[in-house]
Amino acid sequence: MINVFAAEPEGLQQAPHEIRMLAAGHQVSVREVSLAGVRDKDGLMLAFLSGLGLTQTFGRNWDALYDVLTDPEQVSGRFALVLRDYDSLRRHRHLCAELEGVLLDAQQAAREQGRRLWLLAEEPDSDTRHW
Predict the structure, then answer these.
(1) What percent helix, strand, coil does the chain show, rounded to 5?
(2) Which of 13, 32, 118, 129 could form a disulfide with 82 if both were Cys (CB 3.0 to 4.6 A apart)?
(3) Is 15 helix (H, G, I), strand (E, B) or coil?
(4) Could you tell me the superkingdom of the organism this chain comes from (predicted)?
């Protein structure tokens, strides 16, 4: 498998198996968000609140999530967001589409700020895919 951290972040990519070790070698901070059991937007926002270690003041909406992911004080300049159990969220197409839109917009904004935001989906198989 190609090391995702050796290249610029590009869309939603498959998470490598040894993510923490690879990230450490490239000085990339990693946070994981578990999407297991998420069925609606509120559950999704709670998953991000927990996974990113946010405070209860987190707005729990798309704009607030975007703001967190693009804030240099919240997220380091080399940051990987790992979406655990991503396949389970795909069943909720509208929710998944909205999330991907926010994540890709945040990734683009980070790039424009000279920062790197990798979006990594945990998948059961081992071949690299871009969505």
Answers:
(1) 40, 20, 40
(2) 32
(3) coil
(4) Bacteria
Quick: pLDDT tens for 40-65: 999 999 999 999 999 888 999 999 99
Range of the domain at 24: 11-121
- Whether residue 57 lies inside any domain: the answer is yes
- Checking if the pLDDT of 2 tops 80, the result is no
* CA–CA distance, 70 with 27 (Å, rounded to integer): 18
Q: Which two tokens stand for residue 3?
A: 């090391």
Assess if residue 129 is contained within a domain.
no
CA distance 36 to 84: 7
Cβ contact 68:109 at 8 Å: no
In this prediction the pTM is 0.89
